[in-house]
Amino acid sequence: MRKAYFLTILFCLLALPAQASPLTEALQKKYSGMDSMTANFTQTLVHKERGSKQKRTGTLSFKKPLLVRWETKSPTPELLLVGKDAIWNVFPEEEMAYKYAIGLAQDSRSIVRVVTGQAKLDQDFTVEEEGKDGQLGKLRLYPKEPSQAMVEALLWVDPSSYLIRKIRAYDFYGNENEISFSAHNPSIKLPDSSFAYSPPKDFAVEDRTKNAGAAPIKPLMQ
Asked: Which residues pair with 132 in a beta bridge?
């Protein structure tokens, strides 16, 4: 009897869903209550095989449910825009614009959704809270269904504001994509027009929306 009772209790405990860490819960609560935000970013891309490193700076804007404007200012201008109906990746110096189906940004494990706080961390990732790194809380994320673009990620969170200050994502090949954020403005009101794009007449446009599974020329935000 005693053994059967113990096994029943053990089974019930194992069947309970894993509880999110306090930092994860606070982070998701913060972003779920946010309608829009702007921030500056500094991005460092490390290519493991080539041993190369590239640094970029720019601005991020987003508005719920998933409108994103990721604009690289230096060293080379580039625009990644997730709009209502399509994704645009624009290279002004080349006078070239690529148009993709909106579904490419819908995966909640994507880096686009993680950095805008829209990813379902407690559902799509195994999250380990790793205490503090300096003044920031640190989370390690493992996608429950890893993709080529992300097999592991680290998040640094400001415990006073619960805003994401830095993310470092690793892809299948061991390449690193580290993005630091500053000058957050989580109370700004952004019009939908901030996330609309129409290419200039002299730009070449490659429309890949007819093939919903068409891969971008490079992973989003990389």
From this structure: 137
The answer to whether the beta carbons of residues 100 and 209 sit under 8 Å apart is yes
Type of residue at 150:
M
Two tokens at 32?
């779920």
∠ CA(222), CA(169), CA(78), 5° rounding?
Answer: 15
**Phi (first) and psi of residue 193, to 5 degrees:** -65, -20
**The one-letter amino acid at 115:** V
Answer whether the bond into residue 17 is a cis peptide, omega within 30°. Answer: no
CB 165 within 8 A of CB 136: yes
Q: If you search the block for the tokens 């490390």, which residue do you land on?
A: 46
Q: Give me the pLDDT at residue 212, please.
A: 56
- Write out the DSSP string of the chain: -HHHHHHHHHHHHHHSPPPPPHHHHHHHHHHHT-SEEEEEEEEEEEETTTTEEEEEEEEEEEETTTEEEEEEEESS-EEEEE-SSEEEEEEGGGTEEEEEEGGGG--TTSHHHHHTT-S-HHHHEEEEEEEEETTEEEEEEEESS-BTTBSEEEEEE-TTT--EEEEEEE-TT--EEEEEEEEEETT----GGGG-----TTSEEEE-TTSTTPPPSS-TT-
Q: Is the dihedral of CA 144, 146, 149, 153 positive or negative?
A: positive
8 A C-beta contact, residue 25 and residue 139 = no
| Omega prior to 65 cis, within 30 of 0 | yes
Q: Where do we find the tokens 């209550």?
A: 33
Average pLDDT for residues 31-43, to the nearest whole number?
94
The pLDDT, as a whole number, for residue 15 is: 38
